[in-house]
Amino acid sequence: AVLSLLGMNAYHLGQWQEAINYWERALEQNISSGARQSLQEGLSEAYRQLGQTPEPASGPGFWVDLSLSNAANLLTDPRATLFVFVRRAEGGGAPLAATRLTVADLPTRVYLSDQQAMAEDNLLSSATEVVIQARVAMGGTPEAQEGDWQGSTGVLTVDGQQQVELIINQQL
């Protein structure tokens, strides 16, 4: 918890590299999945502020280039929450990896791997085929609601580090 707070203080002072150093050390500790996700979101933003891309962890992962279609861009609030998640291709169950951004962050690139796991026993590396989805949640919650915008990849084979493009272009 102390490392997280030191990272937050450095972040608020605009000391991006120092925040990254604290938060990466905090991620090495045994922390809850909620705290892990918050730290990873902070890390992504600190790296973005430095104009850098975080070093991917070992194991399989996906670099996801996210953007909005013209229609979605015109009809979404820049402050709206954007969820990006990886699910098993056969469907069902909790996401294997997830992150949260805002529409204002787009276009951007995110990295999804075991580090963004929602549960330690449900990892991206345990799947053979996945689908990556992104949803602009107008209500701010991960559950799909009428009026949300989303995009999805086709079925992807989990094999090393891959780059995919995902355009959010379907309104629910």
Please describe what this structure looks like:
By secondary structure, the protein is of the alpha+beta class. Helices cover 27% and strands 31% of the residues. The protein has helices at 2-12, 16-27, 33-50, 70-75, and strands at 61-68, 81-88, 97-102, 108-113, 129-137, 149-152, 156-157, 161-168, 170-171. Helix 1 runs antiparallel to helix 2 (16-27) and helix 2 (16-27) runs antiparallel to helix 3.
Produce the secondary structure layout.
Blueprint: H1 2-12, H2 16-27, H3 33-50, E1 61-68, H4 70-75, E2 81-88, E3 97-102, E4 108-113, E5 129-137, E6 149-152, E7 156-157, E8 161-168, E9 170-171
Parallel strand pairs: 1-8
Antiparallel strand pairs: 1-4, 2-3, 2-5, 5-6, 5-7, 6-9
Helix pairs in contact: 1-2, 2-3
Brief rundown of the structure:
The chain is α+β, with helices and mostly antiparallel strands and 172 residues long. The protein is 27% helix and 31% strand.
How much of the sequence lies in strands comes to 25-35%
Question: How do the helices and strands follow one another from N- to C-terminus?
Answer: HHHEHEEEEEEEE
What is the gyration radius calculated from CA atoms?
16 Å
Mean pLDDT: 86
How far apart the termini lie comes to 39 Å
Biggest sheet overview:
6 strands, antiparallel
* Number of E strands: 9
Helix content: 25-40%
Short descriptors:
single chain, 172 residues, alpha+beta, 3-stranded mixed beta sheet, 4 helices
